[in-house]
Specification:
This protein has 186 residues and is of the alpha+beta class. Helices cover 22% and strands 26% of the residues. Strand 5 and strand 6 form a beta hairpin. The chain is globular, with a radius of gyration of 21 Å. The two termini are 33 Å apart. The relative contact order is 0.12.
Length: 186
């Protein structure tokens, strides 16, 4: 169901986040993530006026992961920033993502390594979408969801990770009956 009709309004800002996932020939996977902020009007920054329609932020982050969703390489690029010569120098810090697992407390470790002055607010925010993007992109390769539905594998990864797939809910009872838990009354 779509959102309701909005009140009369004027566009001020657009933030676009995209993630493209690639299977590499060497068996690894790349996630190319990008965040763009564009103002609908001219904006006065300390570094000068940014014309309407021109990106205030255009930042990219690429991580390379293995089949266990562990980061084996990372790089960041800042193509448009509000403070040229300053914002765009933080890219090498994102090598600190190497060794982290997207499946094991990634967001917590991300904040430990790159929050605040240790990183770029926008690149670090962009990195937070990578775990779910990786799972969406590579679930068929990394997780045995089809076999789990038939009862031939371990408990599916996605159970109890969202509202629809709660272990005591109707979707799990229907699609993963082996793993369904009957709700305790009371």
């Amino acid at each position: 169901m779509p959102l309701s009709s909005p009140a009369s309004r004027q566009l001020r800002h657009t933030r676009a986040i995209t993630v493209e996932a690639y299977a590499r020939d060497d068996g690894l996977w790349d996630l190319d993530a990008r965040i763009r902020d564009i103002k609908a009007q001219d904006i006065a920054l300390a570094s000068g006026v940014r014309p309407a329609g021109t990106a205030v932020h255009d930042l990219s982050l690429r991580i390379t992961i293995n089949r266990d969703l562990e980061i084996v390489d990372a790089e960041a690029a800042s193509d448009s920033v509000p403070y040229p010569g300053y914002c765009d120098t933080i890219g090498p810090a994102y090598k600190k993502l190497i060794g982290l697992s997207l499946a094991k407390h990634f967001r917590l470790h991300l904040k430990d390594r790159l929050s605040g002055v240790l990183g770029c607010t926008h690149l670090t925010e962009l990195a937070q979408v990578l775990p779910t993007a990786a799972i969406q992109a590579f679930a068929d390769d990394a997780f045995e969801t089809r076999n789990a539905a038939q009862g031939d594998a371990e408990r599916p990864y996605e159970i109890d990770r969202c509202h629809a797939l709660r272990a005591d809910g109707p979707a799990v009872a229907r699609y993963y009956p082996r793993w369904a838990i009957k709700a305790v009354p009371g």
